[in-house]
Design brief:
- Helices cover 47% and strands 11% of the residues.
- By secondary structure, it is α+β, with helices and mostly antiparallel strands.
- A seven-stranded mixed sheet has the order 3-2-1-4-7-6-5, with helices on both faces.
- A hairpin with a 3-residue loop joins β6 and β7.
- It is globular, with a radius of gyration of 18 Å.
Length: 270
């Protein structure tokens, strides 16, 4: 098994991502590469929580026998050590469905399992605990919607009461009831889960949530009242933001551009 330092270097610089292993379909390989980029972006942005949390993606339906299968990071690796090859394929229970040198984390996958199992429209889920997001999750009022990014989330955020550090079976239905059909779930006193129809859209939504949290925290440190927005303006912003995420080209352009920026920065440090 490669060392952790070997993995980090390989993840950043290896041309292997352009060479598909024979047993893996082209569609699955493309998803593995894109999901790896998502993990690296979260690391690059500073949104990681050491080895904890997950980003998961539903295996493309074009892959034979893929029903109920998902890609997720190996437990114990840093996000910058994730590669297309070492991503795990797991079932809804979070256990491996294909052999791997790495271990899965079924308890950590429980949140993802609940959402994937109930929401056919969701193909990617990201769960983070960044400091600004966790701070907002601690506040009873949750997200404000009077700043540029907060307004884009108006009416799109659900809240779930904290019941413990992991999701047990008896909590699953309550969490899904809290979430409904929304794509942002604030786990009170904890963090956030965001989900969308694909990897670029999920990254774009997570970035918007992160920016809204950062701005709200910064604004709270300043004296004076905030400038409120009318609900009609918030609704317009929220509708347009949702439309942009559904626009495949827009989300993909944002995702790919951010990946290029990350790779350029990494190349300078190499």
């Amino acid at each position: 098994m490669p060392t952790h330092s070997d993995l980090a270097v390989a993840a950043m610089h290896s041309p292997a991502r352009d060479v598909k292993p024979d047993p893996i379909s082209a569609d699955e390989w493309a998803m593995r590469v894109q999901l790896t980029d998502f993990y690296h972006l979260v690391d690059y942005m500073g949104w990681t929580e050491l080895i904890f949390n997950h980003i998961s993606a539903r295996v493309p339906s074009s892959v034979p026998g893929s029903e109920g299968h998902y890609l997720v990071n190996p437990f114990g690796l840093n996000y910058n050590e994730v590669t297309p090859e070492n991503l795990l394929k797991v079932g809804l229970d979070g256990n491996l469905v294909e052999p791997s040198d790495y271990t899965a984390n079924p308890a950590g996958f429980a949140l993802h399992s609940a959402i994937h199992g109930a929401r056919e429209d969701v193909h990617c889920i990201a769960h983070t605990h960044s400091t600004p997001i966790s701070a907002i999750a601690l506040k009873q009022e949750g997200f404000h919607h009077d700043d540029f990014y907060g307004a884009q989330l108006f009416g799109r955020v659900a809240y779930h009461t904290f019941e413990g550090i992991t999701l047990f079976a008896d909590e699953k239905d309550r969490m899904l009831s809290s979430m409904g059909q929304k794509h942002v779930l604030v786990l009170r006193n904890h963090g956030v889960a965001v989900c969308e129809k694909d990897i670029p859209g999920t990254f774009m939504l997570l970035w918007s949530v992160q920016r809204a949290a950062e701005i709200q925290c910064q604004a709270a440190a300043l004296r004076g009242p905030d400038v409120p927005l009318d609900d009609a303006i918030k609704e317009k912003c929220s509708m347009l933001a949702a439309q942009l995420i559904q626009n495949d080209k827009f989300a993909i352009k944002l995702f790919d551009a951010t990946v290029r920026k990350m790779r350029a920065a990494q190349a300078k440090q190499a």
